[in-house]
User: Fold these one by one.
Assistant:
Number 1:
Amino acid sequence: MMNKQRRDDGWHRLFLFLEKEYGIKVQKCTVIKPHVFLIETSGGKKVLKKYRTFLEASRQQMLFRLLKTEGFLAMPSIEGVIAFSDDYWTIQPYIQAHRSLDYRIEKDREDSLILLRTYHAFSQPLVRHPFFQTMVPRYFLYEKRLERYRQFLHMLPALQRLMKKEELSFVLSCANAFFTYFPSYRSAFFTEQTTMIHGDVASHNFLRTETGSYLIDYDLLAIAPPAVDYLQYISRVMPHVQWSVAFLTQHPMLRTFMEKPWFLAALLFPADVMREWRIVMERNVPFTISHFDNRKRFVQKIMNMIR
């Protein structure tokens, strides 16, 4: 109760500050996430998003402004960065969406890929911008995955209670296959042209509106090869295409990646499991790998392609 009271007091003070300093009178507030508010004002609906540092907030504002200047309009606008208490807030117009895209639907899968490719094309020149060269982190695929794998191993005793022995063994073997094969092709990864990757291509970050589709939530922005975003996209899409290798080798926007050994090795890593196990642990429910037989065949085919 005390924490809720403090939180409510903090929101009240923030809203009074917005009205006094910026003339924004908050009429209604809906909490989307602990750090994201949807507010209704006399000037329409807006999204307030909290960041820990001015750098994080200003990085978003700079990215949005420069991309829109270049002609990429399928993203939110940021009207300003507000410093309040020890936090920094961005203020954005609310995007009225019909729905998020759904990777179970073929058209949505295609539209999200087209939008992602367009974003990469517009963001690639920004890699050379002095601000982004110094203020945006580099994404190191091997190191990032090694960190996640070590965290997974740390919780292995608990996960053994929640996962079937065969499926857990499969996850560990897939991860080890990545760590075995990828170092041989690591130099090729570093020769890839880089762009500003989005970093979180979950389907809920693609919105369909009356005027088109939008890509939102750039908080995991990083400098890396575009393929890093496509690896994440594939890990989220594969359950909806029955882990079909043919889907990747025949797709016009993905098949060129399938010719790169480092990319094939990266496909072996069970990124979805490494992403979802924390949620399973919190809920303390059984963790089952969907389409397990199809996935085993997928991994075997990818390993054959590498060899």
Number 2:
Amino acid sequence: MSRRKFKMTTIIDLARLSQTSKSTVSRVITGKGYVSADKRKAILKAIKETNYIPNRVAQNLKSQQTKTIGFIAEDYFSIAGDFLNYFVKIAAKYDYNVNTYFTHNEKRELEVLNLLMSKSLDGVFILTTVNDWDKILPYTRFGPIATWKRLDSEKIYSSYVDHYPIYLQILNDLRNDGRTKVGHILNDSNSQNTVATVQAIKDFSKKYPEVNNDWQVFHHSGQSAHKMAAKKWLQEADSPKTIICYNDYEASGFMLELKKHHLILNRDYQLISFDNSHLSKVLGLTSVDLKIQQQAENSFFYLYNQLNDTKIPYHRIEPRIISNEL
């Protein structure tokens, strides 16, 4: 009796199913070269439907895991270093290595995600992303993905902390302290945390219209939020003496810009920021502790649990306002 041989899927089959060319399929698999979003989506769909496994992956299936997590960030910034440090420490505790990738652009980010597809990485953590999430979601087929970005998804874990309740608390505390005008330095308007923050401002203003919250500056790509805010604050005669800023880095920049004009924190104005990083401690900024260490550890716990079929419990995160006044 003859045995029917199992036919492995090839890139030629993928090209046919996705109605693309062999070279286009190859670019998606290797992560080298440009592929449009529509074609990439079609190819990843074909890979999923056929359970395609690249040859080099098939050769390494016995090892199952590389014990390596990819840590992706668009670029380096102050809090990224803190988050990475905490993430690497908890990973080492569980015998995992962390490879760090500062991607800078969409192409490089997808190249790193392809390492997940080729099983060169067991899982991926994304601190900040360049690509839209609809481009990233298909890669969850090849391994677990977690992020620090605020994202509501069943396939990608997000360790974000909702800014709405803590922002509302700050506004209430300021009102109780007699503040009648508050300024806001906010992140990009498309950021989900900014959306939550703006909603908190709207809800508070509706309840307490006597507190003026109209002074607002939003971060825009390619522009420095703290410089824009400082310029606006210095030019206007009736600028708010209390400002809430979305992170310590921009708050410290705003503070230093005003210092050039001999304006001193907690004498000429009050500043409240987010992250409670080393910057806030050094400069004496009141800052919201978002429990960065616990966020980093929760992100790793998700990846570890998915990879090892375990149930390490997550930290319960409760932000606190910390006074670092010198």
Number 3:
Amino acid sequence: MDARVPVIVINGFLGSGKTTLLKSLIKETKEKGLKASVLINEFGKNDTDGQIVSPEINSKDIETIVDGCICCTKKSEVVYSLEKLLRKSPDVIFVESTGVANPEEIVDAFSNREIISKLFLSKMVTMIDAQQLLEQNILLDKKLQNTVETQMIAADLLIVNKIDLIDKTSKPEIITDIRENNERGKIIFTTYSTFDYKYIFESVTNKTKSLTSLFDRDSQHGNLSYTSLATITLPAPNNLNEEKFKSFLLSLHPNLLRAKGYVGLQDKNGLFLLQHVKNNTVFQKVEYHKETYLTFIGIDLDAKQIYEGINSLQNQNS
């Protein structure tokens, strides 16, 4: 019997629903009587996604790599993090990549001789934002567009998420776009990353996939998954006007791809988890007791514009 630990990688562009899926998979793992460990890679300096999933799993079973991508600049941390998780004797390891990770490079990072004998790639899942796929013009950078396409090429399972935000008649167009990049992967349409998770867990017992045979085309190791993509993190005011802040976020488009963090809102008690993707901004009340902050992810972001904008919003409310 193969004693190696299965690894399930969750890819997908910024804001596609990876963390929501990860949270659900952790719950499903517990219901199946299995133990999960998690490796989360945050492109920004703060561990927002780790905070989101932490209520579902012991903190000792989570490793987080921040401020860079495990597929390139953070490869040296991957082995150390996976070794720590393997010592916890998990039944499965979930890996949530950054929104701009190149799957080829992720696989390369996992191919280190120190760990390849201890784990195997069980499933490569790619989350796809349905609205984002239909409006690909928001991806101003060609290398980012190539990364999205590579994420689709690599997937065993393609989850088209947020279909409640598109016209139902758009499904054939989405399928055509996906099939141009991936002819074999299973496609599932969903909302809130909810579907029959058997399509993921059935692979946990299938220990045949090779880390070195995932791709049928020439490898492009060495090419970074992003070029002009950057993150800006700053302290968040505790009294933001919700509507004015939404307008401010929209004013940063099309360069702003994603914003997240923990903020306080005017005339509302407690703190809120901010999730912003394209035109959609959601504030979810949460139990959070650390310093508030905002992280902006985008292409050629103007740091001065963002800092001045947040300061202006704060001054208007003071």
Number 4:
Amino acid sequence: MDLARHAEFFVALAEELHFGRAADRLQITQPPLSQGLRRLEEHLGVRLLDRTSRSVVLTEAGRELLGPARELLASAERFRERAEEIGSRELTVRIGLAGSVPLELTTTITAAAARLLPEVTVRTWHAPTTTLLEQVASGALACAVVVHPCVLGDLHGSEVVRLARDVLIGPGALEASDPTSEISLRELRSLEFATYERAGNPASYDLEVDELDRLGGSRRVVAHATERDALGSVANGRAFTPVVRGTTTPFQLDRRQLRGDPLPLRLRAVWREDAPAAIRRAGQQIADELHEWAGNVA
């Protein structure tokens, strides 16, 4: 029998002295609680509780065994936590990052996770948000940084962090414009909007395209397999693409600040609800790093 689980039944009943309250505390119904207590008493060969229709009272044996039962539960919890810690040390933790996450933020996230998990090999993997969500849900990835909005399903998501973005354009793409001034999306309407394929995250893709339409920006959207591939369209002077503020400007491209920050990058960390404690802490630390980054470049 599962001695620890049945001891948990006994302790809950001994502390609540009421089957209904004990069952609620254990999140089970009363019949399996009664059956579990009876099996425990049969296994131990002693009666632990005297129960009537109105009361539950510890027997002498029950009073003597309550302390050891509590110690058993505490020991089982320490055993579980220790096993989880050892299991985390043996993992190569894979963290997923959406393609929109810039190189500078990639290194920040990886370093933060490595500091939190010093005995674990941390590796990052870039992929579209939809792929990352599937991989986290299946357990192939420990956690991921994805673009919001997206459908999380049963995954836990941190608070959404908003990162301001500029735009990259090719040299001379807007010759009549002052290169030091802010620019509106309407002023970019002669250029194509280079972005990732819609299948990578339909919700965020549609949000950006709708915002372009609302603000009079380009109606010509050119989709690429990744955000990095979009730079080719920008380099030939035919398109523009968003880039996180505070990051390095690629060689031979021009950066312009958007007026009103109409195309922010919204990111959040996600992980499984049942992930080991060490992974949940790493996910939250990554979320904290996103917040700090956003504050530093605001």
